[in-house]
Amino acid sequence: MSGQPMPCDAAELSTLFLFEKLDPEQLGRLCSEGRVEKFEPGYVYEEGEPATCFFVLLEGTLVMSRRVGEDDVEISRTSQRGVYAGAMQAYLAVPDDARYKGSLRVTVPSRFFILPAETFAAVLREWFPMAVHLLEGLFFGSQNTQRTIGQRERLLALGSLSAGLTHELNNPAAAAVRATSALRDRVAGMRHKLGMIAAGPYARAALETLVEIQERTAEQVAKATPLSPLEASDREDALADWFDDHDIAGGWQLAPTFVQAGLDTDWLDQVAAAVDEGTLEGAIRWLNYTVETELLMNEIEDSTTRVSNLVNAAKQYSQLDRAPYQVADVHELLDSTLMMLAGKIGSGIRIVKEYDRELPRIPAYPGELNQVWTNLIDNAASAMGGEGVLTVRTALERDQLLVEFRDTGPGVPEEIRGRIFDPFFTTKPVGEGTGLGLDISWRIVVNKHHGHLEVHSEPGDTRFQVFLPLTAAEPDAPQEAS
């Protein structure tokens, strides 16, 4: 909207940090080619309009915002004299965007010095030609460097995740192979024992009872509940004594298997009542094979389920076969990332999940949000040095979806807190970090999702908070996150 024209005072311009080094002639040119306008509360310009002017605050309070769906999400608010907005990159030889990237409004009557974009570019090139060349080189060079190093960082992260995933897959796969080999031995032993029972002096009724007990035993194994080490030890002692009392040799070797299956002396008494004393030991050992095969099949099922879950997590993490932009459940994304990073996080860090399961699904780029989670979780694990607590919390705050990562590390020093999202800034030793993880995360959250990323830190309590809109405008055209 248009403001109320007001006189331009070169002396007032000279008090602003942008113009304090200009000479009287330069200040006079600014006043002659620019203008001062007063705006009542409301919008000065809106996102998407042609970027025609460079605005400098002389007096008042401004609010910068980005549009998300039909809402404007506040990015910053300030009353500092001299802050600027609008066509800030008009000096570039090839402007990256000729439209305002956000909206500017004022909350109280406010005065601005306004310079047309063409004039702003002309005076910069005329008065500070070397500075403009340096800024252009910095801008375009930084873009290219960020893109190249960002791709390299993604490859390094992928390599690290691949190594971790391979390690995680190897454990259950090896367990399944071991259990399968042991199961083959047990089944062979069961066939041998079955032949001995068939040739033995078992009455038909006793065999029928034994088969019935075998079925109930298999069912009991499936229902077994874990015992504490002390409880398991006490029950093993009781079973070993029972075996000794019934003259069954090597009972101490059978007891742990029966305890793991949830069987006790009452169950053994039922077996003893079904057969005579001469055939009891053979029946017990036959049923021991049943217990072992059931336990081994449970182990194989657990291992293969773990492999399947890891593969599904990898697909969820990479968003394989899924649209880049979709309505997503952040909890699914968080869980897949935590599973993918389990090996890298290590056993010394305890993960606490405080999820608000009532939160709605949100429109997002899930693959890129997973990259944000990866960077923040990796930084937290690194800060804690392998020991501590990582709390992942979701909630509804400020009418946005909050994802918070809280670690118990030493914290981020106040003097560098304002720089941690800058490109190439890192506190890690040389060779361990590129300084682009948080920068990439910032641009994914802010630029791509129109959200916000904050950090609050003190020793023992560092919180990175990601705020995401519940609604979104049409998805942006495909672009690099780096």
Automatic annotation (TrEMBL):
SMART domains: cNMP (SM00100), HATPase_c (SM00387). Its EC number is 2.7.13.3. Residues 18-124 form the Cyclic nucleotide-binding domain. Residues 300-472 form the Histidine kinase domain. Keywords: Kinase, Transferase, Two-component regulatory system. It catalyses: ATP + protein L-histidine = ADP + protein N-phospho-L-histidine. PANTHER family: HISTIDINE KINASE, SENSOR HISTIDINE KINASE. This is histidine kinase.
